[in-house]
Amino acid sequence: MFILFFVLWIIFNGKVTVEICIFGLVISAALYWFTCKVMGYSPRYDLNAARLILRLIRYGFTLLWEILKANAQVMKIVLSPKPIVEPKLVRFRSPLKTEMARVALANAITITPGTITVSLEDDEFTVHALDSSFAQGIEDLVFQKQLKEMEESLHV
């Protein structure tokens, strides 16, 4: 939060000089102290937010990697001379507690080629897989593990 105050100070000033930076550091520190004392803010929130941002970045890269892998598998099926597909409908329960995390998991499954989340009711997912190989291990996805970590970090 302190860094945010300082960055905003620099942006609103429109230029960077030594005097503006020193004065901005003092003003930002005073404002940060005020938010901690009067508004009940804690430096722990900053640490948790930084961890969450790092986990979100990791989740984004994982999602991109899984999409690329699934694209290759779907292309292999589509481009094969005699494609043999065995569509499968899979139901599984997720240990995710929050609705936001469940919806994020459902969306991650849907945007990954070869799988579509058909239904999400409470903690039960119904997923259609283009091929039975896509359905293997779907209840233990890496997305789910990372979303669980983010969920736990928010409730600490």
Describe how the helices and strands are arranged.
Elements (H helix, E strand, L loop, with lengths): L1 H12 L4 H20 L5 H37 L8 E6 L5 H13 L3 E7 L2 E6 L2 H4 L6 H13 L2
Antiparallel strand pairs: 1-3, 2-3
Helix pairs in contact: 1-2, 3-6, 4-6
Strand order of the largest sheet: 1-3-2
Q: How much helix is in the residues?
A: 55-70%
**Low-confidence blocks of residues:** none
Query: SS-based structural class?
Result: alpha+beta
Number of extended strands: 3
Total DSSP helices: 6
Characterize the biggest β-sheet. Answer: 3 strands, antiparallel
What would the average pLDDT be, to the nearest integer? 87
Radius of gyration: 23 Å
Strand content: 5-15%
Distance between the termini: 19 Å
Order of helices and strands: HHHEHEEHH
> Can you tell me the number of structural domains?
2
- What coarse outline follows from CA principal-axis ratios? elongated
Please give a structural write-up.
The chain is α+β, with helices and mostly antiparallel strands. It has 2 domains: 2-37, no CATH class; 45-154, no CATH class. The protein contains 6 helices and 3 strands. It has helices at 2-13, 18-37, 43-79, 99-111, 132-135, 142-154, and strands at residues 88-93, 115-121, 124-129. A 3-stranded antiparallel β-sheet has the order 1-3-2. A hairpin with a 2-residue loop joins strand 2 (115-121) and strand 3 (124-129). Helix 1 (2-13) crosses helix 2 (18-37) and helix 4 (99-111) runs antiparallel to helix 6 (142-154). It is elongated, with a radius of gyration of 23 Å. It starts with a helix and ends with a helix. The model has no long low-confidence stretch (mean pLDDT 87).
